[in-house]
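ok so I'm stuck.
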Amino acid sequence: MGWRGVKDKEFLALADRHPFDVFVTPDKNLPYQQNFRVITLRVLVLDTLSTRPDYLVPLIIQFSGLLESLVPSSVTLINDEGEVQPFNLGSGK
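replied:
not stuck anymore, here's the structure
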């Protein structure tokens, strides 16, 4: 898509304008660094020890079933144990 080198804020704005349902990222700092209230994109943060594909497969299977339930402009965390929790955009937690 030609987005290589685009900074996070611009990347999220571009992704929000395209027909993406959810942005999945291993960047645990992203929720603290960006204003998600200005986009409708749903964000899923992989709060995991590893991002190796073989390590993530069980989580991918689990969260693929919950993608439809994520609300617009939300940030959701999923950890190594498969526990899912919303990120509170107001308090930074």
